[in-house]
TrEMBL record:
Protein's recorded name: Phosphatidic acid phosphatase type 2/haloperoxidase domain-containing protein
Record-annotated membrane-spanning stretches: 20-41, 68-93, 100-122, 142-159, 166-187, 193-213, 233-251, 271-294
InterPro entries from the UniProt entry: PAP2/HPO, PAP2/HPO_sf
Span of domain Phosphatidic acid phosphatase type 2/haloperoxidase: 101-208
Record key words, sorted: Membrane, Transmembrane, Transmembrane helix
Gene3D superfamilies: Phosphatidic acid phosphatase type 2/haloperoxidase
Pfam family for this entry, one: PAP2
Length: 316
């Protein structure tokens, strides 16, 4: 039973309208952010140069972390994606959440399909900024980062309230690690990983809206399931890392006129470290934004009858 400070409310009425408005706004903001990053990082010489400087910095200490990076990236494959999707669908089904199972599977499939379509159709102008990778063409968004982030967010959505907070912390860390690993391995530029996270974030908020709109009128929400502490931690960490990234980006922008071969170790480290912070910060903030309304989107009380024992709140 909820404690004295825990409130139970329905998902319709004013609170439902506010939640739906929040999810629509969140989807639109992340789509807009994607377009802004894409147009700057790919469509301008300025953006391409900053991306290339940061990517060049991955050579610093690369041999020391090569094994870790390889392990993270090797774990992201088509087989692992299919297995993870099946597990996520199974978790939702054993909780008797059929709509949730369908929507989370669509979230994973839609995110990855969108990334592959965008990667194919986005053209990368040649500004003679990165001659070594000129033949590779466009690499935005990152497929590996999309796989990791979509699985992580979908898993958070299907977990019961008592472990959802822990799942969000692990999921954000996994998505961040995958994004940074693609940069460390030299597979992707920083903007590739950031835009991949935005693709997943937009799909997650859109999927959440679908879940909200398909709920029963008798479904009820408990404030205790809000995971406020975890949401706050992820938001604060995410914003702090993005601030570090912005400072590093500003400093790198001030010295971008220097030819890349003439950059010293410190300059490259600032650019690379700032980009890694930006990727990790985006992953943390995106996960926090998903959590904000998740207890309303996936309420413990579905309106179908008694509350399953495994859905009792616990943990962070």
């Amino acid at each position: 039973m909820p404690g004295a400070s825990d409130t139970v409310s329905g998902v319709r009425g004013r609170s439902g309208i506010l939640t739906a408005s929040w999810l629509v706004l969140l989807t639109a903001v992340q789509v807009l952010a994607f377009v802004v990053v894409w147009r700057f990082a790919v469509g301008t010489e300025h953006g391409q140069l900053l991306d290339t400087i940061a990517l060049t910095g991955n050579s610093i200490g690369q041999q020391r972390i090569e094994g870790i990076v390889g392990g993270v990236l090797n774990a992201v494959s088509l087989l692992s994606l299919l297995v993870a999707t099946a597990v996520i669908g199974f978790i939702a089904l054993i909780r008797v959440r059929i709509t949730l199972a369908v929507v989370t599977v669509l979230l994973i499939a839609g995110s990855n399909f969108t990334t592959q379509i965008l990667k194919h159709f986005i053209e990368r102008p040649d500004f003679d900024v990165d001659e070594a990778r000129e033949a590779a063409g466009n690499s935005l968004p990152s497929g590996h980062t999309t796989v990791a982030a979509s699985v992580a967010i979908a898993l958070v959505m299907v977990l019961p309230p008592r472990v959802r907070g822990w799942g969000a912390l692990v999921g954000a860390g996994y998505a961040a690690a995958a994004g940074v690993a693609t940069l460390s391995a030299g597979w992707h530029r920083p903007s590739d990983a950031v835009t991949a996270l935005l693709v997943v974030g937009a799909w997650a908020s859109a999927a959440s809206l679908v879940l909200l709109l398909t709920q029963r009128e008798t479904a009820q929400v408990e404030a205790a399931d809000g995971n406020r502490r975890v949401t706050s931690v992820l938001a604060i960490v995410g914003l702090a890392l993005l601030l570090v990234a912005a400072i590093a980006l500003g400093w790198t922008d001030g010295v971008r006129s220097t030819p890349i071969p003439e950059f010293d170790r410190h300059q490259l480290l600032v650019a690379y470290g700032g980009s890694a912070a930006g990727i990790a910060g985006t992953a943390a903030l995106m996960t926090a934004l998903v959590l904000v309304a998740l207890h309303r989107v996936v309420p413990r009380h579905t309106g179908r009858g008694a509350v399953p024992a495994e859905d009792e709140p616990d943990g962070p």
